[in-house]
Each structure stands twice: as C-alpha cells, then as structure tokens.
Amino acid sequence: MSLIPPQPPTLIAIDHDDYHASRVGRIKGGLQVFVTTPFVPALGDEIGREFLAVYIFDSNGKLVEARIDDLGPRSELDRDQARQLLEQRMSELGPLDYGRIVVQPFAIKRFGMTFGLVLRAPEEQDDGWWVELQPGNYMAFHEPWDSGEYICGEPSSCLEALKVNCCSEVNAVN
Length: 174
Hints:
Largest sheet: 6 strands, antiparallel
Shape: globular
Number of domains: 1
Structural class: alpha+beta
Distance between the termini: 55 Å
Number of helices: 2
Order of helices and strands: EEEEEEHEEEEEEH
C-alpha cells in the first residue's frame, strides 16, 4: 500500500483576531490586506531586526504588492517612529473592513531574507505541510487550511508591544 504524499495548500484562511492577525481584512476594490510585524530574533551574535509589512492580495488571494519597511536593529527600535509608520501605512490603505482573508502562500526576497507566508514541506512521512509567516515564524498554519486558525510562538517581536496601543488607536480611526 503506497501513501499518497500530501499536497501543499493553494489557499489558507486567516481570521481577524486581537493578536497577530489584528490587521487583517479587505479594502476598496475587494483587495485583501495583511499588515504585520516580521522580525529576526536577537540570538547569539545576531542583533535582530524589526520590520513592518503590508501584504496586499487580489480577490483570488494572489499577492499583488508587498510593502516592507526595515525598522532597524531590535535594540535601537524607535517605538514612536514605528507607531507613526504603522499609522501612516494603515492610512494609505484607506478604510479596512476587518475580517477573514483567504490567500495564497508566497515567498519574496527583501533585505537579503525571505518574507511571506512560506510553505514548509513535510520532513517525515507522517508530517503534513505547514505555512509559516517569515521571518520570525510567529504564525504557523496547518490543515485544515480553511479553519482561519494558526499556532503562534512566544511574542518575541518588539513591535508586539505596540499592537495594543497603536492598533487600537488605528482601529478606532478606521
């Protein structure tokens, strides 16, 4: 009896929530949006970096634009400047109708690293596919792909501290 290897997902659902998916929804023209804060952890000799990413998808879930800002080393993060940039990026999008999005996994290179909802193939015969938000791997999706749910690690991004203050203010404006 041969096992049919699992296939990678073509679409994954991301439900709006009050944590890592707090800036997920739709804007004018039916475009889907995911605004998030990727990071490189500060480990060992690595100083770490913080980023602000705006991913825009068409109505079929295909990535059409990625706006990624490098906010610099984690230890030198200017929280006020980061908060202002987040507010600016949210304002540029226009009104955001917060809610579920359904998008295709993707990977793009910026600043010498991979960003996106990146496919991770099974490592063992009994493993399944994963889709990880990179860099930082702070959201990981697994079957069922239409659940809208994810597994998250520890809140290791410095920008997560901004989420409660900044995003609640931004959400109130939009």
